[in-house]
Amino acid sequence: MPYGSRFGVKHAINRRQLMKTAAAGAALVAAPGIIGRARAQTPLKVAAIYTVPVEQQWVSRIHKAANAAVARGDIEYVFSENTSNNDYERVMREYSEAGHDLIIGEAFAVEEAARQVARDYPDKAYLLGSSFKPMDDTPNFAVFDNYIQDASYLSGIIAGAMTQSKNIGMVGGFPIPEVNRLMHAFMAGARESAPDIKFQVAFIGSWFDPPKAKETAFAQIDAGADLLYAERFGVSDAAKERGILAVGNVIDTQADYPDTVAASALWHFEPTLDAAIARVKAGTFKAEDYGVYSFMKEGGCSLAPLGTFEGRVPEAALKLVAEREAAIKDGSLVVEINDEEPKSS
Questions:
Q1: Are 61 and 268 in contact (CB under 8 A)?
Q2: Residue 336 forms part of a structural domain
Q3: How far is residue 239's CA from residue 251's CA, in Å, rounded to a whole number?
Q4: pLDDT tens for each residue of 178-208
Q5: Across 32-140, where does the E strand assignment appear?
Q6: 30 - beta bridge partners?
Q7: Does 250 share its domain with 229?
Q8: For 121-149, what is each residue's pLDDT tens digit?
C-alpha cells in the first residue's frame, strides 16, 4: 500500500517522467459502464500518480509492472511521484486532459476527489489502490489492493519453524485492513509450525519512520522475540544488529540482509495491471475489484526464493510450505482474510 498517503501525510511535489509519450491514435469511446477503444493494437498511454517515491516498497511493485509493460510494447508510461494529497486531484486532471487512456496509482486519502475526477472524464479508465469497492456512480473507476495473504501465510510457516523462543515481534505502520490481513495470515502460518507461539504486535503510527520502527523492534527483542516480522523499514536493521532473524513483506530485501531475512512475501502487480490493459484494449474496462489478481493462484504473490537460507530452513517446514502452496493454487485451501486489528498474544 502506498505507505505515506493513507492518513494525510503530505509530500513535496517532485515530478519525474520515465519516458515521454507521443500524442497519436484514436480516443477512447465511452459506452454505458464500459470504456471502449478504437485502436487495440497501439500502445496505451498510461499515467501513474504516486504519493511517495517510486523506490518505496508498495509503489515500487506497481512501477516495476508498468516498466515491464513498456518493455513489451503494450504501453507508454509517465508518472508523478511524491504528489501531495492536496495536489492529487490536480495531477489526475492534468493527466486526464493530456489524453492518457489509463491512469493508475493510489486513492486511499483522496477517494472522493479521485472518484469525482473519474466522473468528470467518463471516457478515461482509472485503476487506483483503494480500501473501498467499485461504485455504480463511477463506472470507469476500478480498484485494487495487495491481497498477498497467501504468501504471508507461507512465510509464517517458515518463521514458526525458525524461532527458538517461540516469541515473534511484529512491527506495522497503521492497523488498517491492508496491513492487518497480512499480519493475521503470517500469524496463522507460524501457528502451523508452532501452535504455542506468542506474538508481540505493535504499530508505530507512521508509514515511513525507520528509526521508530527500529526502536520498537529493539523493545520486542528485549521482551524475548528472536524473530521479527518486518512490515516496516527499520525492523530488519534491528534484527541484524541484534543477530536475530526477520521475515520481509511486499519486496525481497535479503540482498541487503543476507544473514537476517529468512523469507519474504512478495507482491506482483503484473497480473493486476495486465488485466486492466487487456480490458481497456478490448473495450471492456469497467468498475471492478481487481484485488483477486494479487492472490497466489493468479500469480499476484509468491514466497521469495530462500537464497542465502537454502539449507537453513527445516525440511519439515519446507515440505509443509510446498503442500500448502499447492493447495492454495488448486483452490483446496483458502487463506482467511481477516482485516481486524491483530493483538499481542
A1: yes
A2: no
A3: 17
A4: 899 999 999 999 999 999 999 999 999 987 7
A5: 34-37, 44-49, 75-80, 102-106, 125-129
A6: 35
A7: yes
A8: 999 999 999 988 999 999 999 999 989 99
Q: What is the mean pLDDT of residues 227-247?
A: 96
Specify whether the CB–CB gap between 37 and 26 falls below 8 A.
Answer: yes
- CA atoms within a 13 Å half-sphere pointing along the CA-CB vector of 47: 23
Total number of domains in the chain:
2
Q: 42, 24 in Cβ contact below 8 A? A: yes
* Joined grid coordinates for residue 258: 543476507
- Alpha-carbon distance of 18 to 90, in angstroms, equals 20
- Verify that 91 and 163 share a domain, yes or no: no
Domain range for 129: 28-146+269-282
How far is C-alpha 49 from the geometric centre of its chain's CA atoms? 15
Mean pLDDT of the chain: 89
pTM of the shown model: 0.86
Residue type, 143: V
Distance separating alpha carbons of residues 214 and 209, to the nearest angstrom: 9
Determine the straight-line distance between the first and last CA of the chain, rounded to whole angstroms: 26
Distance (Å, whole) CA 200 – CA 229: 10
